[in-house]
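can u do me a favor
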């Protein structure tokens, strides 16, 4: 199975993907490492939501969800809704009297990690107040946790976008655009390219806005991305994209990066780099722009 692995180093700031409210304080989602580090993060669910919104604002339909036994559930139609294809779905099926029942589900061909800070990050508090629009009542104070951090987002893409097993199509009404290919039903290549291309454009540009922002607009500021095209399977590449600060500037951890290059070479995988902020001063052969790498990924997977 061919795969594409993407790892993106980026900067975000503010209160992104806010967590729970504790009293009048809006907290920030964060991990605590075993060493006591504070690591803010944006959840994978929030990033998928952001990408869905960007897809919905383009030419694609996204799942409106259905009300199933008082909870929202996936529609389970990967032909009509592009996010059901890219991010998978799970539709609960009512159990029979015997107690047996099996869900209709699709394993996502696009897997997305948390966007998590790589280093210990201080959390600040921003103070504010909500003022009444009318009357002389006092304003209500509140607090918002904010941070400024450099984090990493990892993405894994398999080669079955637009390619479905028969059981994944039980909720699909219109199958006219599908072609039978062995044990699978496949969308036309043009449609598969369109779906993969638009997702990559949104992800790699980037063209998505992080959700649940409580006090500011936030689009990630990309620094560098590595893209690995694998002929078969997955490589342990994600730990090799890291950074250091030298003289107040961001630099890639060269020791780790050299290990990544060696790993890809020994595995006969193709390695490409998008250097958004020109932090790699050396003449690196595999630097590439967004449009070119999107085309290479489409040719590799489809």
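np, heres the sequence
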């Amino acid at each position: 199975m061919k795969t594409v692995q993407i790892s993106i180093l980026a900067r975000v700031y503010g209160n992104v993907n806010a967590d729970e409210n504790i009293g009048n304080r809006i907290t920030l989602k964060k991990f605590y490492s075993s060493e006591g580090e504070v690591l803010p993060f944006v959840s994978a669910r929030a990033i998928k939501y952001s990408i869905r919104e960007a897809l919905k604002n383009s030419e694609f339909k996204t799942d409106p969800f259905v009300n199933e036994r008082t909870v929202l559930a996936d529609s389970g139609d990967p032909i009509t809704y592009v996010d059901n294809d890219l991010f998978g779905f799970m539709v609960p099926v009512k159990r029979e009297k015997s107690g047996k029942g099996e869900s209709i589900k699709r394993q996502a061909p696009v897997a997305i990690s948390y966007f998590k800070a790589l280093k210990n990050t201080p959390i600040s508090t921003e103070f504010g107040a909500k003022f009444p629009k009318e009357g002389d009542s006092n304003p209500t104070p509140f607090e918002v946790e904010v941070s400024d951090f450099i984090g990493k987002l990892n993405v894994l893409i398999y080669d079955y976008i637009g390619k479905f097993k028969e059981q994944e199509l039980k909720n699909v009404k219109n199958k006219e655009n599908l072609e039978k290919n062995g044990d699978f039903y496949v969308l036309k290549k043009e449609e598969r390219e369109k779906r993969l291309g638009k997702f990559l454009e949104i992800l790699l540009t980037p063209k998505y806005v992080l959700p649940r922002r409580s006090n500011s607009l936030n689009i990630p500021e990309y620094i560098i991305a590595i893209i690995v095209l694998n002929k078969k399977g997955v490589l342990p590449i994600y730990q090799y994209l890291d950074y250091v600060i030298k003289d107040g500037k961001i630099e890639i951890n060269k020791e780790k990066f050299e290990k990544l290059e060696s790993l890809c070479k020994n595995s006969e995988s193709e390695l490409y780099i998008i250097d958004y902020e020109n932090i790699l001063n050396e003449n690196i052969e595999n630097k590439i722009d967004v449009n070119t790498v999107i085309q290479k990924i489409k040719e590799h997977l489809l």
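The chain has five helices and 20 strands. hope that helps!!
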